[in-house]
Design the sequence.
């Protein structure tokens, strides 16, 4: 019985993907020994770890790319919710996926090197921390402007115009922006 269980466990491990999340911005590199940062992966977006080497991990990122400006991977196919952003003219090897009828942008995946950080198996705790930061900091001077008051595309600018008046640390800015966009009035799941 124990042998059967260990075989079962072994097979499950081999087949299950190592999907993780970061609660901070993660630097991206074109090769394992590069020091030049070519892009950033933003918090609360899931990605797959394919392998680890030294201080880096090789990851697979999925999302949508506007073919007219292929330096940003978005969370869904219409809203400017950023999963990863790259410096212009970086040579990126996107694998295109089959598009569905209503995809406005290309559905892609990208394999790339990332700095190794503390990653998390799910986004629950980081999202509740983001909500706490928002509620505790943004309702001090005026009533809280709720998540649903603005559209996904509007939140980044609204947040940035106010964040310097709060105690929200720089490392948490993108965490709160992503939280607000993903809970906004017109948020569309991917
Ligand atoms: C230190 C006080 C203070 C804090 C903290 C603060 N605000 Fe404000 N907020 C203001 C004031 C004052 C205004 C009025 C317009 C102005 O001064 O820009 C305002 C206006 C606004 C408006 C209305 C803008 C418009 O054009 O209608 C929104 C939305 C808003 N704040 C969101 C936020 C969010 C989100 C946060 C947290 C990141 C936040 N505020 C934190 C003081 C604050």
Sequence:
């Amino acid at each position: 019985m124990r042998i059967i269980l260990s075989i079962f466990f072994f097979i499950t491990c081999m087949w299950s993907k190592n999907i993780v999340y970061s609660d901070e911005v993660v630097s991206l590199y074109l090769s394992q020994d590069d020091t030049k940062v070519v892009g950033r992966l933003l918090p609360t977006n899931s990605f797959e770890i394919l392998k680890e080497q030294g201080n880096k991990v090789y990851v697979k990122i999925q999302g949508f790319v506007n073919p007219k400006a292929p330096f940003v991977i978005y969370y869904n196919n219409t809203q400017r919710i950023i999963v990863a952003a790259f410096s212009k003219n970086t040579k990126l090897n996107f694998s295109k996926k089959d598009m569905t009828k209503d995809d406005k942008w290309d559905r892609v995946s990208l394999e790339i090197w990332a700095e190794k950080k503390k990653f998390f198996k799910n986004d629950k705790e980081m999202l509740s921390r983001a909500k706490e930061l928002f509620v505790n900091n943004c309702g001090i001077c005026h009533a809280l402007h709720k998540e649903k008051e603005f559209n996904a595309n509007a939140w980044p600018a609204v947040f940035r115009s106010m964040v310097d008046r709060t105690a929200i640390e720089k490392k948490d800015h993108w965490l709160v922006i992503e939280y607000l966009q993903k809970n906004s009035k017109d948020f569309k799941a991917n």
Summary: The chain has two domains: 17-115, 124-182. The first strand starts at residue 19 and ends at 20.
